[in-house]
Amino acid sequence: MNADDSSFPVKVQGAGLEMFEMQVHGFWQVQDTVMALTAREEVCPRSSFSLALAGAPLDPLVDLKSLRGLRPGSVLRLVEEPYSPHSARAHLGRVLELLRTSGPQDALKEGRSPSVLETLTNSPGAAKDGGSPTGRSLKRSLSVPKAEAGVQDGTPPEYLLPGSLERPLMALLPHSSQTEGSVYLRDLSLSCWNPPPGHRKLQGDFLYVTVVTLEGSRYDVTSCPKGFYVNRSTEEVFDPRPVQASPLCHCFTDLLCHLSPAFKQALSTAKTRAQLPPAEVLPTPYRTVCWLGPAAISRTQRNTFSRLGLDQQAAAQAPDWNEELQAARDLPQGTLEERLWRDRTLLQVNSAFVMAAAQGAETLVDGFAETVSASGEEPGFLWGGVFMSQGSSSAGGERGRRAAQRLELSGVQAYSDLGDLQALHTLPTATVDYRGVRLSAQGLAPGSDGPEPEADPEADPEAPAPPPSRGLMYGLNAGPQESPRRRQLLVLLAQSAKALSLQRHAVLGPAGYQVPLFTSVDAQGLLGGDGRFYLLDLVRTMPADANFCPEVEAAERALTAGGQVEEVKEMAEGEVKEEEEKDKVEVGEELKEAAEEKEAKEEAKEEAKEEAKEEAKEEERPKCSEAGGDRWPESYHSDTGLPRRYPHGLCRLRRELWHAFVQHKHTQFNQRVRELMEEDGGFEECAKPGDARATKAVRAACEEVGSVSNLIFEMRFNPNVFCPGVSFPGGDSAATRLQERLLREAAAFIIKQQIPDFVDYCLQGVEVPMDSATLKQALHHRGINLRYLGHVIKAISQSEHKERLRHILRLALAEVVVRSSRRVFNSFVQSVEVWSLSAAVSHFLCCLLVPQFTPAPAGEEPKKKSKRRGGRGGAGASETPAWSAPTGAALTGPALWNLVRQDALETYDITAHLGASVSHVVEQNGLQRLSLLREFCLKTGVQLRLRDYCLDNQNKAPIGPDDVLNIFPLVKHIHMPVADAFKAFRAAQTFIEKGLLDQAQERLKETSYLFGRVCDELHPEACHCLSTLARVTFLQGKTAEARSAQLKAVMLSERVLGFDDPSTIQQYALLAVYLGAGGEKALAQKCLLRARHLVLTVHGEDHPYVATLDGCLGLLLTGEAAGQYLESALKLNMSFFGPTDTHTAFSQHLLSQWLCSKGDYRSAMSHEKEAQAAYSAMFGEDHKQTKCSAEFLRTITQQAVRVERSRREAPDVTEPAAEGLKPSSETVLEQLALLTGIRKNAESNRLQEFKKRFWEMKLAEATEKVKVINERLVSAKTKREGESTPAGAAGAEAEETPAGAAGAAAGGEGAAGAAVCLENGDGGAEHPEEALPSGGQEIRPAEEPSEENRPSAAVNGLPEERSAPGEPEQQETEREVELHATMNGGPDVKGDDTHHKETETGETVRPSEGMVNGEEEVKRAGSHEETNGVNGVHDDDEDGDDTDLSGLEKRKEHLVEVNAKSTKANEAVVNAVIVVNGGAGNGVVVNGAPEE
């Protein structure tokens, strides 16, 4: 990928290993090579060794490329090094990792999302048609007995058929039917004689280990610097001396193999068995929580190695997370290798910090650590080098505390993303939610209490003290100070403010003096003891949301109540004057100098004058008091209910909203500038350089849109506006009002622009949200916070397309219910003791999902419960305690739902859609209880046992205490960038948009390599990259490569995003297409069935993507099941998109195609007529899609007539005519690609009309050129030949000119048959001059070729229709037409039908200019001398005539060649773009029957 990335093979031997070969990189250090060796199967679990080359030991920090004598094929020798106590324990840990059996259950036990793909593809039934969606290993565990019979006869299970209401969970994940792993030892633990006594420590004993082999023998093993040996100790006698026959082994497994033959055999078997792919074995950087756990809650195999004691051996010193993170950030970034190493180090440090934060939260909340702070309200904890606290509740109680922690993390992320400002540092930060408690985790800031420079004893004691060299240097409480380091910090803050669009402003400090700020008022900048600048307290980094600010609401009421605008203005002016007078008094008291006091008064007067002028200007502008000014839009409050109060006062806007708002303002600015210039003399006149009217227009537009500059468009925002307790200087009142205006406009922009855009996006049906995570992602992408869910629901409810948006409404309501329930759950679970958590959580879930249930006792079933136990027990396993809600009342279903409704009203201003219970939401909106259960568990960290839950029974508790397996901490953390990989991925996407697939493939491979170097491809964007690579290679015809890349994408998506994430579901559907292309039809069906099962679990059947999966299943399955899925797809598309939509029309055609294969031509014709009517309504009768649908309908009709005639002629003979209309495998594959979006079709009919006009204009131009050149040739030849040539010769020659040349030059459709790649520069034939006529002959426009002579191609089973010369072949965007026409030498066609013509010299002239009698053409074709004759013929001599004639002939030949090449090039570009965007054409895929 890079010149520095040079890899070469080396050979490794030594340490008792056979020689093997491995690839190394020149940029690796020796220690990197050692790390790579420890991961090799040949070396594992050996450790504590070094490398030597030619007998000389190698320095671990030396690069391999700098070693002399190291070349490809060199031999590196492993040299065993002595152990230290730490390395000896690390070696034992590696041995345990090797001996522990790994399987799908391990990930579930740890709460991580497993990968099910390996189980699915490697199951014994994978090669059979109609297999189970999860392989043979899961068939026995399905809760539906009919599933096995369905799998055997090739039909899908009943619960996956359309219309089924059953949602079994047992088939989602592998469970206890898996075989147990190998057993190596009976026991491995620390010896009872451990730790070694003092005299044995002095002789090198580290620890003693007891081993019990499978043969029953017991051994005591000593760990020493040289390795491991068996000592003479027994259970009764301590004798550390080595046994005489015991060898001293450097590797512990070598000693165990010597002691136990059974261990040796088991270890050999484990090494020879098939290994899992590295992507499935490597740990993910961050935990992906799985809400389902193992099906069996009892242990089936004891932990043999739990008593070795290695897990309890904590490090002697906790790591300094801040120092590790900042050291990684300070790594060089000069070369690609340095940047990759830096990104990988950052990811590893942050991943380890996140893991430590999660472990610390569990330890602290479970009560295993004490607080380190004296404050009872804000306790702080220190665990593993991480400082953890719950934060301050001053911002609005518990909800304000949680919001502050979330916003702190967002602010740290914003400054961390400023890669150009490495000198400005932030602390490692994360937030952890565990058992209803949110903890903020941060690394420790470097101490600022180090030794200061000693004061000079000879210095003047009255002189001011020098500024501090470290400590608080920026902030509201920093005080006035001046030093070079502070100036350096201010420069960094100014640069960061520019990058984040924050305005430099001033606020009034505690003593009344002005404090200049580049950040929020809470932020603090300090110089740490390590010499780095740190920025802390970034809660209010982003500006306030004016829709939820109490101050805004109060101001709105003051401005609108009784029309008392003037009184409010006078009050504001009085407050400003009081603040100014206060400032004057304080300055006078501090300085005590009359001259300075007088000067301050004069400055105050000037400021007052300037303020009065600004206010006068504001009053002169009528818009400032209207919707676009300082007030809200008209009727804004009555329409939206905003602004209003929120449960906490920390509502901030998202960065995505600012980007969209600034772009919106920039568009307004450009439009306003153009309007002002048009009004002031015209745009072209004002736009001339030096025209003052342009500057005037720019100034006026800047003032109107709210730009902070009046010379250029620049948007900056003040994060301290609308913040309680913040005062601004009186002189900044105009700037403050401008910032208030901008924040109001941005808040209204969310309601008036962003939410409607989101609704329109969902109506398009492209990548619509499927669950809570995708809904949140789509909203955040447009800058919409989740507190606007109520307004999203309101917008959908008021939309005329409410029925088509029911799935979005369902998701929004589910999000409201789950988030409100989580807040109630957090308060509820905090008061529950640890020993009652399972019962409390199960009770809460039952009250939420089945509000009328009867509480069942925990532990045993009611029938088996003993009556002798009585009711005296506590909250144990015998009975369920009476749980209390956070309000103190008993927690029942109705009480819980009342709390949920109250929270939804306060947060989202919505209660009408919730009803009296959860049953109302389920029945009225089609919401699944199972989907609610999944979302709740994912948002709280609750893990449930894998079994089928009956949530529809209203009388029985569906979830018991034994079903709650665990509660895992949920961590939100900083995302570390992979800059080079993202850059390469964006470049690949650009190549894909241009249709350059070869270049895109190379960039995608490079992106995958870069992701592998940084994060071992365990990254969400790496999954997207691999999926895109699979699509590109599939479009290139490389099916095997596409299959391989997509398999890896599915596996990574399951592990990184989750086994049931919507992205994983889509990856399964894409994999099915590539498997089907490779002939693996049975496995493709399994992938589609699993994808459908996951969709049913996550959302339900009523979703547009289910129609996509059903259409694919209808194409791959056989029998009546295929028809059921196709009918389901048509029904869903009809309900979501309506009858006149491409999705519905395509479903109509697929169903018609299946009915033809069954011989039901009457029904097939009915559905195809619906498809044709839809295409005709969308595109018109002359569109390619409509014509192909009509052709297929005609084919069906003819086939039906033949079948009916044959039945009448031979009624006793069954005619198998239906077999003739079955689609071919190529047709099915292309239809699958279109359904899943691998190939895409354009739908713009406007481009068809544009291209038709383009070809007509080009034909007319070519005809005119030919006519002019023929006239000039006749005139020139007549003059040259004189009397030697008969008068009619020229005309005869002209008459003998073969026809068709001009037609070819004008873009005849006959040459545009085959599709070519976009890399061909001319896009036509290799030798286009072979088709041109010889010079000197007259060129005539070609006649339109007859229908029988027009070439045709059979595509997808039916002959492809060729359109007339004036009709386009396919659809493409106008931008591509302009681009490729310009690249291929063709005319530059603009959207306004203005046709330009480019000459040989590069000049561009219009067809109506410079073409009279062809003078310009002759001047450019012949000599460059001036001509005096008529029509450009020289009068000097015959040489001049010869020169001119030859020039004319050459010009004519060149003209014909250019027109022909331009025509063919444009046609080839059209076909090539069609190949990239949608295959052979829009109408081709409709032709589903083979050619007769």
Overview of this protein structure:
This protein is of the alpha+beta class. The protein is built from 46 helices and 27 strands. Helix 24 (806-830) packs across helix 28 (929-940) and helix 35 runs antiparallel to helix 40 (1225-1235). The longest helix has 41 residues, at 1438-1478. The C terminus is likely disordered.
Number of helices: 46
Largest sheet data? 5 strands, mixed
Strand order of the largest sheet: 2-1-5-3-4
- Fraction in beta strands: 5-15%
The residue ranges in which pLDDT falls below 50 over 5 or more consecutive positions are: 124-153, 312-316, 449-453, 463-467, 559-580, 582-592, 613-629, 857-880, 1215-1220, 1242-1247, 1285-1445, 1465-1492
Structural class: alpha+beta
From the alpha carbons, calculate the radius of gyration and give it in angstroms: 39 Å
Q: Span from first to last CA?
A: 51 Å
Please estimate the helix content. Answer: 40-55%
- What's the average pLDDT? 77
The total strand number stands at 27
Instruction: Note the overall shape.
Output: globular
Features of this protein?
single chain, 1492 residues, alpha+beta, 5-stranded antiparallel beta sheet, 46 helices, 27 strands, disordered C terminus
